[in-house]
Amino acid sequence: MRFKGGALVVGALAVALAAAGCSETTNDGDNGGSQEAKTQSGSISYEAADNTGPAKAVEGATKGGTLTVMQNSDFEHLDPARNYVNVQQLTANLIYRSLNGYVEDGSGKMLLVGDLATNPGTDVNKDCKVWEFKLRDGLKYEDGSAISTKDVAWGIARSFAPELNEGPHYIQQWLYPGGAYNASYKGPYEGGQMPAGIETPDDKTIKFTFAAPHCDMPYAAALPTSAPVPQAKDTKGQYDLKPFSSGPYKVKSYTRDNLLELERNPNWDANTDPIRTAYPDVYKFSFGLEQQQIAERLVADAAADQASITWGDTPPAVLPRTTGAGVAERVAKGPTQYVWYLGINNQRIKDKKIREALYYGLDRDAALKAIGGTSAGTPASTLMSPTTAGFEAYDAYNAPATGDVNKVKEILGGTTPPPLVLAHSNTPLRTAQAEAIRASLVKAGFQVTLKAIEATSYYDEVGRKNTPFDLYLHGWGSDWPTGSTIIPPLYDSREIVDEGNQNLAYFAEPSIDAEIDRIKTLSAAEQDAAWMALDKKIMTEFLPEIPAYYDATHELFGSKVGNVFLSDAFGAIQLNKIYVKP
Amino acid sequence: MVRFITRRVLVGVATIIAISIIVFGLFFAVPSSPAKVMCGKNCDPASIAAVETRLGLREPIVEQYTSFMKGVFVGRTYAPGTAFERQCDAPCLGYSFRNDEPVTAILKRTVPVTISIVVGAAILWLLIGVSLGMISALRRGTLFDKIAIGISLTGASMQVFFFGLILLYGLVYATGWLDFPSYTPFTENPLKWAQGLILPWVTLGFLNSAIYARLSRAQMLETLSEDYVRTARAKGLPLGRVYTKHALRAAITPIVTIAGLDIGASLGGTFITETIFGLRGLGKETVEAVNFLNLPIVVATVLLAAVFIVVANLIVDLLYAVIDPRVRLS
Amino acid sequence: MTAPASAPNSPTTTDKDPYLRVNDLRVQFPTEDGVVKAVDGVSFSVERGKTLGIVGESGSGKSVTSLTIMGLHNTKRARISGEILVGGRNVVGMTEEQTRRLRGRDMAMIFQDPLSALHPYYKVGAQIAEAYKVHHPNASKAEAKKRAVDMLGRVGIPQPARRADSYPHEFSGGMRQRAMIAMALVNDPDLLIADEPTTALDVTVQAQILDLLEDLQREFNSAIIMITHDLGVVAQVADEVLVMYGGRAVEFGTVEQVMRRPQHPYTWGLLASVPSLHGDSDADLVPIKGNPPSLINLPTGCAFHPRCRYAGRNGDRSFTEVPELHQVLERGHLVACHLSEADRTKFYAEDIAPSAGVAQ
User: Fold this and answer.
1) Would you call B233 an interface residue with chain C, using a CB distance cutoff of 8 Å?
2) Are C250 and C304 contacting, i.e. CB atoms less than 8 angstroms apart?
3) What distance in Å separates the CA atoms of residue A297 and residue A305, rounded to the nearest whole number?
4) Chain A interface, mutation test: which of B42, B108, B167, B168, most A Cβ atoms within 10 Å?
């Protein structure tokens, strides 16, 4: 998934605020010394032990209390059909349950298991085309009524409605391949039709039938669109405000832009849930505070704020005060699933030697310093993020973080590289970063011109196949922690279209396309290593573009919050096993 | 007087209509489409088109404007004939592009915050600033005057964000003497309301006091040198009566004007104060809406700000006419 | 009648003592640049029913003198010495409260610009009534109002009851000054100080106002000080004239004496700068060359010497010695000049008389 457009705009506001003592609120973090990337393991589990509730208790955890999440801005959507932002998903995860979900414990060992489903899905014909899920026994909504697969089907059906189009559409697209996901079926509201390819033979069973193999289905089923929405409770556009609870908490009150309060759903049974421990009695999400204020308050750790966390990155102005005793241990930091690339237009720069020279010429340190230093991220050498399942660190070129001018000269061998145009989004942050990148490339002997593009149309401009630019920074994060939502969208030549491209390197290599096809037919468990190998192969043999840095996050929490860790699936503090110390 | 008021009201209405047209026009002059901001991660051209259709952005601008105005006065129906049909009663200001919240609900929530901040601060700054300035003027050259001038110079040269942050560090972060400001509706708990707003009041109130003290002092000094003050003394009026009845009334006139306009403008949003103290008022809402290209909120908040200013102007004009008989005829 | 302290009182007056007697008045304002000697040893007196004209350029000290008599200077910022006897009471050294009681009741003042001197926010009648009420605390509002209307009628304002409810800006310039006069006379003051009362008015209105003042003086038998730079006004209304320059009195006498037989070169200059109805219409007006002196750094000797074309005719006395008022020619005619009487007569006859018109 691409970095949210809104984030770029917010960045512009936040920088304008810098003069007012506030600071850039997006995308800064410090992953300090933790350079060694975590390696994911055992991504999908069909083990009964992993798939059975209750969730493993956290040592020393206590039940009760109110956990407060201080956020800069309100959520846009909690409606499962419209929920595509990590913090919204972390929140919604407390309210409604999807077919599948992730069991996390902060050790880096993340398991995809059945959530409503008894296991992560049965590949009925072992061809990844027909997937069946069985619901657990004893699942109830907040009103005590039983959860049915019909409601899961309704939830997916309604996600086709153009009015509710903000969510992820993997299953939707797989059900209706070729063209837009909702080109032919536009949801159940007009005419009451249910989507083709979904069967609910009984209230416990749901079966998906795809035309093509989709071995990733267990991951796609972990996305919010597979959460059950009873037709009778479907408030359509208003569902955002009060999703009908199938999880441990329900919405008590929701004042937009101010406060969302969750209270326990008495009909939730811990024994049906292998994922959530549900320790706090109440979750409060308070909105509208500047990230600077939030950070200051969490650093100060006043009594009223001790049971609080934030998902916002600590602004640089507050960072120095987060290293001392009493504060340092109250920071959750590490890489997110996002990687930032210096995109190279392979249609224009066909010679790998020049791309290699650019790789050595890029001063990653300077590019990071321009947006907040090491707090913003760490230099990258792989296409996939360290949070990806099966990740293994490698460095195919061993370029120093500050670049290697001599190596550039050696590679170019006295030839003059063509003049290059570096496009960048016109936010202050991205402009400063582009200037730093340009400076480092010029130092290495390249001729680089900058081209600023209005922030909201940046990806339109560079995503146009005939884009006149040679270089452009772009970010990408996976929708689930496997290579299947990274390598295919970014490097499959068949994904290249006239407009709205995600393969921004415009990288076209039939052998890679073939390998992608091959990996897609592997079972999900086998795919992880295969994607990692393909990552390395693309980098080593083709170097289509330059992984510049892994995005990092740096989140503060109060002294009375226990079991705080960054979710590998969502790149922010996980809420479902957190607890409030008495 | 009736003609005077009628004329001012008509001018005010015309101003507001003109502003609404300008806001609409400006918004559409911006090159980026709000749909791109709203469509989240699914920003392929088809999704954008769907969002644009849903937001009504594909209609001609004149039509969008007229449906907006129709909504304000008689209400309107969104997505008629579909499952998502919604009746929006007058005064309908539409729905937030970002999260579909009715704009009137947003205003209902944010306006009281800003009004609370401004009214509280205005009472402070008028009481402190004006009396400080007046006393200073009457005790011109004394130690009191010099200290007052010093304080007001300091205050006037300080910025809200600087002073506000100092207060936050000193009274909240470092010492924990006060809780971080928050808004509780007055009707819910007046004490909590005041407690939560004390910092913004002090910040805005102190800084504006400085300005008003200087202004009042200058006005009072100028008035004291007026011939009619000398006349009043020559009549044998006691000094107290000269100051209160003859000098104060004249000196206060321009202060009323400026205070009226200041308060009117502040009601449109005290963005910096709201931001520093994390209070979600009209100012913060507006700036955020502009950043998200959230047209319905932008239009509503800008128009509301304009209404505040126009009404403040009207009130100031009327007050002026009450205070100064010369204005009544002109 | 009136006379400087050195001059004996005229035995012909009806009252034993002049109502106002000013003895060696000095008013100084300390400023950052130095001490402003606004009034420097001035003495004069005015009887009831009589009018003293004080003439001089701006900065000559005439307005400061009148404000000092009224006690309108801030005693914290002005250093005042000498004696001002109003009906026998010395105003100098009185507290604010004491002078306040005199102000508006025993002595009243009319200012130059009635538009700015009347409060723009209050009705004319109310402002007059206020002046009455402050000195008649037992009077009811209605009585005060009635008194104000009466006064407006007395000063010649038509439909006074209706006009009393008008605001100053609704009055014409002449009407405003009539209202101002009504306000000043509402308590039957014994002393009326009129500071350039006609300067801001049309010429025709000027004459009406002056006539009114004369009529009212006859009626109320007040002593009047008429401060002006306009010798024409002085000639019309004054009994005696005091010419001031640089904070000092330079010439004093009856109107006849000062206007017909002026003795001080400064007075000559003043007269020469007045257009004459009788003199040669081709003759140029002769303005006094130079500028009024700085009251902080007065020229040594005779303050007028830098502008006086006869300075130095008496050795260097003009430059070193401050001339005192002394009697010349006639009884009561005083002049502060180092020129000998013979010289003055000669210069006047040769240089001044032919070109200068003298106001009647």
Assistant:
1) yes
2) yes
3) 7
4) B42
pTM metric for this prediction: 0.78
Whether the ipTM is more than 0.90: the answer is no
Q: Model confidence over C156-202: pLDDT tens digits?
A: 899 999 999 999 999 988 889 889 999 998 998 999 999 888 887 78
Residues 169-208 of B with CB under 8 A from A: 169, 172-174, 176, 179-180
Q: What residue segments make up the domains of chain C, in order of their start? A: 115-188, 264-352
Whether omega for the bond prior to residue A54 falls within 30 degrees of 0, making it cis, is yes
Say if CB B274 and CB B283 are below 8 A apart: yes
Q: Does any CB of chain B come closer than 8 Å to the CB of residue A500?
A: yes
Contact call for B42 and A237, based on CB within 8 A: no
Provide mean pLDDT across the span A186-202: 91
Q: Which domain holds residue A375?
A: 335-553
A479 located within any domain: yes
CA-to-CA separations, A12 to A5, A7, A115, in angstroms, rounded: 12, 9, 39
Nearest to A132 by CA among A195, A196, A230, A199: A199
Q: Which residues of A touch B161 (CB under 8 A)?
A: 19-21
Chain B contact for A263 (CB, 8 A cutoff): no
Nearest-CA residue of chain B relative to C121? B324
In a domain, A465, yes or no: yes
Residues of C in contact with B236 (CB under 8 A): 100-105, 131, 134-135
Predicted confidence (pLDDT) at residue B169 exceeds the cutoff of 70: yes
- pLDDT at site A142: 96
Q: How would you classify residue A203: left for phi > 0, otherwise alpha for psi between -120 and 50, otherwise beta?
A: alpha
User: Measured between CB atoms, does B165 come within 8 Å of chain A?
Assistant: yes
Summarize pLDDT for A97-148 with one digit per residue, the tens.
999 999 998 887 889 999 999 999 999 998 899 999 999 999 999 999 999 9
Q: What is the CATH number of the domain that holds A519?
A: 3.10.105.10
Count structural domains, chain A: 1
Q: How confident is the model at residue A450 (pLDDT cuts 50, 70, 90)?
A: very high
In this prediction, residue C127 carries a pLDDT of: 94
Contacting A residues, span 418-477, partner chain B, CB-CB under 8 Å: 454-457, 459-460
Using a CB-CB cut-off of 8 Å, the residues of chain C touching B326 are 120, 167, 169
Residue numbers in C near B234 (CB within 8 A): 70, 72, 103-104, 108-109, 111
Exposed e or buried b per residue across A489-501, where buried means at least 16 C-beta atoms within 10 angstroms of its C-beta? bbbbbebbeeebb
Minimum distance, in Å, between the CA of residue B72 and any CA atom of chain A: 22
In a domain, A207, yes or no: no
| Mean pLDDT calculated for residue range A470-493 | 91
A81 located within any domain: no
Q: Which domains does chain B have, with CATH numbers?
A: 31-92 (no CATH), 104-329 (1.10.3720.10)
Which amino acid does the sequence have at B187?
A: T
List Cα–Cα distances, A524 to A131, A213, A225, C45, in angstroms. Answer: 13, 11, 20, 119
Q: pLDDT > 90: what percent of chain B?
A: 32
| Cα→Cα distances B177→A97, B199, C49, Å | 42, 12, 76
Instruction: With beta carbons under 8 A apart, name residues in chain C contacting B222.
Output: none
